[in-house]
Amino acid sequence: MSPEAGLVVENLSVSYAISRGPFRRADELPALRDVDLTIAPGRTLGVVGESGCGKSTLARAILRLQSLKGGVVRWNGEAISALSEPAFRRVRPQMQMVFQDPVASLNPRMRVLDIIAEPLATHRPELSGAQRRQKVLEAMERVGLRPEMADRFPHEFSGGQAQRIGIARAIVLEPGLLICDEAVSALDVSIRAQVLVLLEKLQREMGLSILFISHDLSVVRQIAHDILVLYLGRVVEQAPRDVLFATPRHPYTQALIGSVLSADPRIEKAHQSPPIGGDLPSPIDPPPGCPFHTRCPLAEPICAQAMPGLETWPDGGRVACHVANRERPAAA
Amino acid sequence: MTEPLLGVKHLCVRFSSPSGPVLAVNDVGFSLAAGEVLGVVGESGSGKSQMFMALGGLLAGNGRATGEAWLGGRNLLGLTEAELNRVRGRELAYVFQDPMTALNPYRTISAQITELLRFNRGMDGQAARAEALRLLERVRIPEARRRLDMFPHEFSGGMRQRVTIAMALSNNPKLLVADEPTTALDVTVQIQVLDILEELRREQGLAVVLITHDMGVVARLAHKVMVVYAGTIVEEGSVEEVLLAPTHPYTTGLLASMPDIRRPIRAITPIPGHPPDGRQERVGCMFAPRCFKAEPVCRAETPALAARTGRQRQACHFPVAEGEAPLARAVAS
Amino acid sequence: MARWRLGFVIPAFLLGLVIAFAIFGDFLTPHDYGTSSLLNRNKPPVFAGGSWAYPLGTDGLGRDLLARLVFGTRISIGLALVGTLIGAVLGTVLGLIAARSNNLIGALIVAGIDLQAAVPFMIIALATLAIFGNSLTLFVVILGLYGWENYARLVRGSAMSAHTLPFVEAARSIGVGAMTIDRRHILPTVFNVVIVQATLNFPQTILLESGLSFLGLGIQPPFTSLGQLLGEGRDSLGRAWWLAVVPGTLIFVTTLSVSLLGDALRDRLDPTMRRG
Amino acid sequence: QDSRPDFVVAVNGLYRSIEPIDGNSTNAQRIMDSIYDPLVTRNWTEDPEGGELRPSLATAWEQVDDLTWRFTIREGVKFHNGETMTAEDVAFTLSAERIWGDNALVPAGTRYTTSFASVEAIDATTVEVKTDIPDPNLPYRFVTPLGFVVPKAHYLEVGVEAFGQKPIGTGPYKVVEFDQASHVKLEAFEDYWGGTPPLKTIEFRIVPEFSARLAGMVAGEFDIMVNVPIDEVETVETYPEITYVSRPGDNYIMFAYNTLDLPEFGPNPVSDVNLRYAMSAAIDRDALVEALWGDATFAPAPFNFPDSPAFYDPEVKPLIGYDPEAAKAWLEKSSYNGEEVVVNVVRGAYPNFDLAVEFLAEQWRNLGINIRLNIVDSWPLALKHPFGLLNMSMSTTFDGTPTRSIWGFWGPDSARATRADDRSWAPPAEFVALGEQYLAEPDVAKKVALFREMVAIWEREQPALMLWRSIVNWVVSNDYEWTSVNGNAMLLGPGYISVKN
Amino acid sequence: MSLSFVLSKLLRLVLTVWAAATLVFIMLRLAGDPVAAMVPSDAPQIVIDRYRERFGLDQPFIIQYFAYLRGILSGDFGISFRTGGPAWDMVAPRILPTLILTGTATLVAIVLGVPAGMLAAANHNSPFDRLVMSFSVFGFAMPNFFLGILLILLFTLNWRLLPSGGFEHPQSLIMPAITLGLASAGAYARLTRSAVLEVLASPFMRTARANGVPPLRRMTHHVLRAVLVPLVTLAGFSIGALIAGAVVTETVFAWPGIGRLLVTSVTERDLAVVQLIVILAALTMAISNMMVDLLYGWLDPRIGTRRRSGAG
Ligand SMILES: Nc1ncnc2c1ncn2[C@@H]1O[C@H](COP(=O)(O)OP(=O)(O)OP(=O)(O)O)[C@@H](O)[C@H]1O
Ligand SMILES: Nc1ncnc2c1ncn2[C@@H]1O[C@H](COP(=O)(O)OP(=O)(O)OP(=O)(O)O)[C@@H](O)[C@H]1O
Ligand SMILES: [Mg+2]
Ligand SMILES: [Mg+2]
Ligand code: NI
């Protein structure tokens, strides 16, 4: 098997144990089940889904902040999920993360310089203080922060600037993969746009792979090349951006897209709410069969019994839905 | 023209804070008729919430509101706390952003709703319970009867927000202030909650103030829009006017920053810089430092809110003409 | 803001006075705390008709009370400081370890906290001192152990929530080691809790010391402490009230000012933190 | 109706048992005279140092021969349980079975029964005690706890411990409640042989705090309280409703030097007699006692005790008196080299002792001795090697002679010489030999001479530093007329207390 | 509230009490020979040996330990060295007085502290607020034996209003309960105040206000309900402080309770009694902690069966 560049995740499963006291067996909360995905260098994969569907868990699992129940994570062909902790330390600088709450993800008691230098201090201890500072300033320049800001504390920055600091920290080791977990959700529209533009720029310059997690479809559409839709820990659909938005096949994807509002009042006048009801079922005991069948307008008896397979469509989309896949079965 | 339901004039909200006074809302005036939905948009910290908290006397202890706010023939800003408490819930109701914490976690849903019915509408226990059930069904809580005696934490976020709406509407208020009612919700739930709000408005004829930073929410529900920047109204008009033909550079900038899923993909254009925090000195147009059209006069003179281009009003010396901006370019793809 | 400053400055000033008294008090009196003078027993203080030779009078062995007070203050504050420090360090370290150990060690620490909390410390101190005899080392160890479980529990709680803070997650995602995370991120974050708890523990330590002295288990002569002086003076309240009231006042002022400082700090550091 | 008062005594503590021997302690001695009667009693009022004996439960006694004494037992005396006291009971009270046999029930009493050979009830009213050496002073012993007569059958039935919790005697009051951590309640024993008890009930209630005791006295809650700190006497005397009473005790307070060099506990500098001389000479005991006690008590020369009048000589001076210069010289002469000298002291063991200890320690430090005070809270901690000095007190209640002090405390069978954990003295052979002669000597003058020789040896060895005779004090409500006696005992029976008009 | 929740709490309780019992056993045995406290200081060695035999102190440590554990399980807490009777008989009659004292003190603390704290919070930053806060620090900073003696001097010696101590009259309870309760009253006042302030600032109070719930009802039905959780926590915590305080207070006021007994038992080395008291104290604390935990489940619907977080 030739080493494949970029990130490959196969059959990833993660469970949380929910303890209910010493006299009860811990309940298992399957947060992710059999997730596959691939991100080539320089590409962005957008992950969308409702709150609690396992988006953050996916990010944490890839970075080994969370133990796996099953599956493999490969980075540039190497199965990093199987590495020992010391061996993984070698790979870790390759993968960095940007967080949701920009200010909260910076230690309020550290100077910007030290925050951005923390990855260097951890993984490149051989660097001298001056070299380290040099690298930090380079990263700051890349994300559009002025050098004199290096000696300030996080609370002196607005949300947008703070997120730039977070991004600078993530790129200072020149990683190959950037994982953005709701990296722009907490930002105002104007600031969000700044950060999105910055991320695109960095991807171009550094050839980054980006795993872009968001619940906001319009943002994902803006930045991602491919899009993965999660529902209750399962991949229900994955497709290149244009395919997904042009022809969403899974009823859940359709409902998600159908729920997004437009800033154009004329469009909104005509916009019908998608016909899905209810709430996300409890993730502790997800419904049998297709997890979405409880809310699905197209559900058929089979949906309550068997989990549909994720089948590949000719245009590169993959869909896990009995009904949709029946329409146009996968090319063999 | 009929007497508007709500008339606000020269509303200012000030806070005293350890680092000096904060002018959160600066000389704001507007009006709202019954059955009308006013969308209030603007970036975080622009003063949207405080503007309407001031009306119900709900400012934090260090805040003070001045000006006039006429509702049902009374100036809310001149009322005592006791009088205001009678206005709140009966004429003026609120729904807040975070449904997770807006309900008392220690009391059942029915206790919290019937309490309002008993105190504000003088119902007895039995009737109040029946009415509570009706209200829950009204906001489409599934299995409402069973859920009546549950605690808030047993509800999902969307259901909780529906409960707070039911509570707010329990006393048939004339004006509902919905402060980011759907921001914390998933999109699929958001659209359901918005639909319920719209339905209730239509049926009960109540006026709604919809505070949000999401232009989509405004586009779906609002009739009128008010764009707020740094505590002042920078643009105001009907929803079509403001969203389709924005005239203030700030409004155009906001719209250009927002990707829109229902339109072709185009490159987004951020507004440079970041918003002021309420402590700055106020000279000239507060948006001038970030404005692509700013001229020296903008930094010196505060533009008044006036209709310079047509019906809609803007506080800008150099309103944007149709087509000049937004600088949104469709991505060739 | 001004109110906060006042709430800080007044107790800080009072505490400063007490500390200055403990450190420089020797200059106020020519006598040594231990020198007895059988000719000068039970002399009244200046304000009760005594002479300036013994400004606060003397005790039953003719020892200068002012000198004893200075020395007692020194010992009391020193003991409370050392005791608080030991408890804080021990409790903090154990709390930090427990917060990130989801294993036997963590469980053991939690069990230890439970156990310590289950037996009123006064009883333990009483039994230990009465049974093993009262050496200075043992006394310090006991004062040091006093309250460690409070630090540990608070630190563990705050550290566990600190572990979920985004910036700690961020550090972990970078690959920073557990010890470094504790040192660089968790400890500074929970430090407020430790400081505030210390301002509660410090006066309690002084009070524990005086309670033990009252029960006759205090520090050993020739050393003395405020609690000891208060305890010794209590029989004489009818005749020579100052014997008890002066050290009592010093205890009160010290505990009061530290508590007030703690209040001010708490308001300042974390307005939402609450403690019984 | 019974118009006699309910009487409350505020005490600082109670002892675990009120069995006469097992419970013998300062805190129980106060109570015992109300519960028990001794065989023989002193003429407390006229001869407080106790020379003159009077009948009590024994109506008469005679020495039949050198080694035999006969006691005639009072008839018609009832125990609290209604049974009549017999000679059997008396014999049992003094028996080997109870006290001095191999498996004695209360072995702690052996010190009162040295020289006993046999005890026998020879008829219904006569008890015969035989000794193995002549003992002209034997009846004196029966004023001590040894003489408190207990009912044989009941005693054997319940056992020593239970008896100590609910004792039965012949005294004017019977025990109705005893809770060692709070109170003892006594009730008048109407069948008392000695007359009608003047109080309806007596409660000895623990009130640990002096201030609370005093407040309660002044407020009329208590009728008598014990233990007034000597500095507070003046304060007490300012209250018109109460009276301060003080008496010499029957204890002598001292410091025992550890004269033994026990290698297992490390070097003991105090085993050098010159250091002991130096330490004794460094202390101005007269000034100390004067300062602490005023003229309430005095600093005795060793074993020169007024409570054994025949052996007392006011002119005797101690061998080692206060002499700072000599102290320095002895220190010089000693092998002392700055080693630590540990002083074991039980906190609050005797009134004012803690203060004295601090004073002594300071004097010794000034002399150049490296003193470490080890002030502990209970006897088990103090009575343990290693130590250089140990606090102790020496009781003289025995038989009107210094036998108990010089032989009981310093003889070859004494605790000081035998106990594993805290022995501190090995009596020289010469001392032991003299002691044996002393015990056997019937003639008082010769006995005194032997005694003096023993004291001289003792002083030469200097195994202890005598400090003062203990003081017992009370505060009495002015509603009562109370006759106090020397020692801890409180007599509350007929003739000793009455309500003032 | 599930059975498994209660069971796990019970298990924890048993373990805690066992650990406390073992700890005190080891400690007491380490501390040398208790007999020396029972015999006169001039009793010769043979006397000591006989006593050791009588109380089984010559047995090996481990045998004593298992005998002790077996005894506890069968309700036999050993023999008091002092009375020769069961230790339980020494302790039992004192439980009630201590309960009365600590109970009344708690009542004093709550009755004084909670309303004061609520009023202080309702009048935040007013002079009344500051008065309450100063007073609470006063209660906290005063050594309670000193307070007790001052009370005796004033109320008994000077004014002759109250008995100096004892247990006979109902009035006897007043001064000890105040002495013991005052420090806790301060704690209750502070906690109530800060908890009320915190609740007042919470979003759900804003909702209640915005919906026109009248102020008094907001206090009684919304705030009080929410404040109960921290108050219950404090009540649980303060049991320990009360027991510790009782040791001193009972001594000052000659109150015939467990605290006094502990002091005398410790100095006289009545091992069985000390052990029993420690076990009782641990049991009380463990039970009160368990009650607090169970009460949480009842008071805070969100907790239900889930474990309380470590922060207490
Ligand atoms: N540490 C944890 N222990 C137990 N369950 C957890 C834990 N973290 C997450 N979960 C559960 O796992 C599921 C997935 O959580 P995750 O945080 O990955 O969701 P998410 O998609 O990121 O949601 P959000 O959009 O709210 O961030 C949820 O049901 C969540 O409750
Ligand atoms: N209690 C207060 N003390 C001081 N300043 C305050 C206080 N409350 C609000 N402010 C300030 O008032 C300004 C307006 O706040 P407001 O809550 O109205 O903003 P908003 O537009 O609603 O923002 P968001 O979208 O974040 O809710 C902000 O700058 C804020 O800092
Ligand atoms: Mg997430
Ligand atoms: Mg807002
Ligand atoms: Ni405040």
TrEMBL record, chain A:
<dbReference type="GO" id="GO:0055085">
    <property type="term" value="P:transmembrane transport"/>
</dbReference>
<dbReference type="InterPro" id="IPR013563">
    <property type="entry name" value="Oligopep_ABC_C"/>
</dbReference>
<dbReference type="InterPro" id="IPR003439">
    <property type="entry name" value="ABC_transporter-like_ATP-bd"/>
</dbReference>
<dbReference type="GO" id="GO:0005524">
    <property type="term" value="F:ATP binding"/>
</dbReference>
<dbReference type="InterPro" id="IPR027417">
    <property type="entry name" value="P-loop_NTPase"/>
</dbReference>
<dbReference type="InterPro" id="IPR003593">
    <property type="entry name" value="AAA+_ATPase"/>
</dbReference>
<comment type="similarity">
    <text>Belongs to the ABC transporter superfamily.</text>
</comment>
<dbReference type="Pfam" id="PF08352">
    <property type="entry name" value="oligo_HPY"/>
</dbReference>
<keyword id="KW-0813">Transport</keyword>
<keyword id="KW-0067">ATP-binding</keyword>
<dbReference type="GO" id="GO:0016887">
    <property type="term" value="F:ATP hydrolysis activity"/>
</dbReference>
<protein>
    <submittedName>
        <fullName>Oligopeptide transport system ATP-binding protein</fullName>
    </submittedName>
</protein>
From TrEMBL, chain B:
<dbReference type="GO" id="GO:0005886">
    <property type="term" value="C:plasma membrane"/>
</dbReference>
<dbReference type="Pfam" id="PF08352">
    <property type="entry name" value="oligo_HPY"/>
</dbReference>
<keyword id="KW-0472">Membrane</keyword>
<dbReference type="InterPro" id="IPR027417">
    <property type="entry name" value="P-loop_NTPase"/>
</dbReference>
<feature type="domain" description="ABC transporter">
    <location>
        <begin position="8"/>
        <end position="255"/>
    </location>
</feature>
<keyword id="KW-0547">Nucleotide-binding</keyword>
<keyword id="KW-0067">ATP-binding</keyword>
<protein>
    <submittedName>
        <fullName>Oligopeptide transport system ATP-binding protein</fullName>
    </submittedName>
</protein>
<dbReference type="GO" id="GO:0005524">
    <property type="term" value="F:ATP binding"/>
</dbReference>
<keyword id="KW-1003">Cell membrane</keyword>
<keyword id="KW-0813">Transport</keyword>
<dbReference type="InterPro" id="IPR003593">
    <property type="entry name" value="AAA+_ATPase"/>
</dbReference>
From TrEMBL, chain C:
<feature type="domain" description="ABC transmembrane type-1">
    <location>
        <begin position="73"/>
        <end position="262"/>
    </location>
</feature>
<feature type="transmembrane region" description="Helical">
    <location>
        <begin position="75"/>
        <end position="98"/>
    </location>
</feature>
<dbReference type="InterPro" id="IPR035906">
    <property type="entry name" value="MetI-like_sf"/>
</dbReference>
<dbReference type="InterPro" id="IPR025966">
    <property type="entry name" value="OppC_N"/>
</dbReference>
<keyword id="KW-0472">Membrane</keyword>
<dbReference type="GO" id="GO:0055085">
    <property type="term" value="P:transmembrane transport"/>
</dbReference>
<feature type="transmembrane region" description="Helical">
    <location>
        <begin position="119"/>
        <end position="148"/>
    </location>
</feature>
<dbReference type="Pfam" id="PF12911">
    <property type="entry name" value="OppC_N"/>
</dbReference>
<keyword id="KW-1003">Cell membrane</keyword>
<keyword id="KW-0813">Transport</keyword>
<feature type="transmembrane region" description="Helical">
    <location>
        <begin position="240"/>
        <end position="265"/>
    </location>
</feature>
<dbReference type="Pfam" id="PF00528">
    <property type="entry name" value="BPD_transp_1"/>
</dbReference>
TrEMBL record, chain E:
<feature type="transmembrane region" description="Helical">
    <location>
        <begin position="131"/>
        <end position="153"/>
    </location>
</feature>
<comment type="similarity">
    <text>Belongs to the binding-protein-dependent transport system permease family.</text>
</comment>
<feature type="transmembrane region" description="Helical">
    <location>
        <begin position="273"/>
        <end position="299"/>
    </location>
</feature>
<keyword id="KW-1003">Cell membrane</keyword>
<keyword id="KW-0813">Transport</keyword>
<protein>
    <submittedName>
        <fullName>Peptide/nickel transport system permease protein</fullName>
    </submittedName>
</protein>
<dbReference type="GO" id="GO:0071916">
    <property type="term" value="F:dipeptide transmembrane transporter activity"/>
</dbReference>
<dbReference type="GO" id="GO:0005886">
    <property type="term" value="C:plasma membrane"/>
</dbReference>
<feature type="transmembrane region" description="Helical">
    <location>
        <begin position="12"/>
        <end position="31"/>
    </location>
</feature>
<dbReference type="Pfam" id="PF00528">
    <property type="entry name" value="BPD_transp_1"/>
</dbReference>
<feature type="transmembrane region" description="Helical">
    <location>
        <begin position="95"/>
        <end position="119"/>
    </location>
</feature>
<feature type="transmembrane region" description="Helical">
    <location>
        <begin position="173"/>
        <end position="191"/>
    </location>
</feature>
